[in-house]
Design brief:
single chain, two-stranded antiparallel sheet, 3 helices, 10 strands, about 25% helix, about 30% strand
Length: about 140
């Protein structure tokens, strides 16, 4: 008997109680996370163990992930770099530089609005948009 992983259930479970934002900010990931930490009081740090590696066109591409665990809660914020050397983690969103995923607790609508407004005030940020995982074709790449 062959065992098969139910990826749809895995994906649904992962995206339960998440908030996903797409961000256009044409700066290096370390600069973006630094500005976020300074202006919003987050403590994003790169997490090399979460880095996503994709093989395309006989080459490896690496997508860094920054992580911030909110003290005293189950909330974790992840900042995915969407581009590496001309390849994209989510090719259907080539215009986005970063993906911000908040996971662990349901964020209230006003909390999401405040986060979006705060991000829009950061240097180099041109666009912040709330996304729904239903529109993402390659959402398996976001699962950590």
């Amino acid at each position: 008997m062959k065992l098969k992983i139910d990826t749809e259930t895995l994906i649904d479970d992962f995206f339960e109680s998440t908030c996903l934002l797409g961000i256009v900010a044409p700066v290096k990931d370390y600069q973006f996370s630094w500005h976020t930490n300074q202006a919003l009081g987050y403590h994003f740090k790169i997490n090399h163990s979460l880095e996503i590696q994709l093989r395309k066109k006989e080459r490896n591409y690496f997508f860094s992930i920054y992580e911030y665990v909110v003290p005293g809660s189950t909330m974790v914020h992840y900042l995915y770099n969407n581009e590496d050397d001309g390849e994209y983690l989510l090719p259907e969103f080539k215009h986005l530089d970063y993906l911000w995923l908040a996971k662990g607790e349901e964020m209230e609508k006003d909390e999401v609005s405040v986060l979006i407004q705060s991000l829009r005030l950061l240097p180099a940020v041109q666009l912040v948009t709330e996304m729904t995982n239903e529109k993402i074709k390659n959402k398996q790449f976001l699962i950590l």
